[in-house]
Amino acid sequence: MPTPDLATTYLGLELANPVVVGANPLTGNLDGIRDCAAAGAGAIVLKSLFEEEIRSEAEGVDRALGLESDWHPEVYDYLRAGLGMRCAPRQYLDMIAAARRETDIPIIASINCVSPDIWPEFAAETAAAGASALELNIALFPDDVHEDAARLEQRLLAIVAAAAKAVAIPVAVKLAPHFSALPNLVLRLRQAGAKGCVLFNRLYRPTIHPETLKVIGGDRFSNPAESALAIRWIAVLADRIDLDFAAATGFHDGNQAVRAILAGARAVQTVSALHREGLGQISAIQTEIRAWMSRKGFASLADFRGLVSQARHPESPLFTRLQYMRRLDGA
């Protein structure tokens, strides 16, 4: 049998394989990007640029301009509009341009944002710099007792709509799992202009040290058991909503990657495995996928993508409440 073909498409981009290096410190500099590409990544998501960084720079520009008392108001407005988005983020844009020059795989920019009003111009700059796509890591935390779920979701949708309007490149949204009606939200993300959805973001997990009484960081890295959540929801959503799904959190080896693709994922993001095992894990995951495909007689990813999704098996109770009930009964 010929060597199985791992080629896939994600966000309309051609990938040689589905293993995508997710946003993390390894993709925050050009050397790391080169290393990930050389190790065989199908695509790379750059380390996220946080909205707070853009806001901080904009505030710095305000202070600098404020020292000049003789600016004509129109000149001030012109400089403020241009400089606020182009100082500290300039390094990020330069990195995108350099990465595109020095690698031949898709480079996906990432913005960690919480509002729709400050960064659409910068999102357009990422496209102009050469980003293949834009991933919005929207980490809205429901910490306001006066904000209901509908209002929080509307904020998220406004961010996506602003991005889709600002850029011509495809936009993916990386979500946290804490939404009460996830299928409907994902459908509305598509209607707002998203082309892809990454499930799921692994939120910061602080805890409390009982001796020092201080808030400390939780586990930095995911574990393979965490992949089940993404697999479940991709299986529920794939082929029901016209989006490309990428699986994230807990995907350390080829076994989890195969499960995600069976559920309907077009790409699998990995981060923690690379920090624990090294960049060689990128090719190890691909080797494991190919070995499984050879055993099962699949020649391409398309042969089994979504094979176990609920869209293909609407009668199946595998990912529903019935399965939960059977589990509790020990069936």
Task: Describe this protein's structure.
- 43% of the residues lie in helices and 15% in strands.
- The strands form three sheets. It has an eight-stranded parallel β-barrel, surrounded by eight helices.
- It is globular, with a radius of gyration of 21 Å.
- It has a single domain (8-329), classed as Aldolase class I (TIM Barrel), CATH 3.20.20.
- The longest helix is centred in the middle third of the chain and has 18 residues, at 149-166.
- Helix 9 links the parallel strand 12 (244-247) and strand 13.
- It is built from twelve helices and 13 strands.
- It is α/β, with parallel strands linked by helices.
The number of distinct helices, counting runs of at least 4 residues, comes to 12
The total strand number stands at 13
CATH class group: Alpha Beta
Share of residues in helices: 40-55%
Look up the CATH topology.
Answer: TIM Barrel
Give the strand order of the largest sheet, numbering strands 1, 2, ... along the chain. Answer: 3-4-6-7-8-9-12-13
Q: What's the domain count?
A: 1
Unreliable stretches (pLDDT < 50, length at least 5) are 58-88
Proper CATH architecture: Alpha-Beta Barrel
The major pleated sheet works out as: 8 strands, parallel, barrel
Radius of gyration: 21 Å
Please tell me what the overall shape is: globular
CATH homologous superfamily classification: Aldolase class I
Order of helices and strands: EEEHEEHHHEHEHEHEEEHEHEHHH
> Which secondary-structure class do the elements indicate?
alpha/beta
What's the rounded overall pLDDT mean? 86
* Terminal Cα span: 39 Å
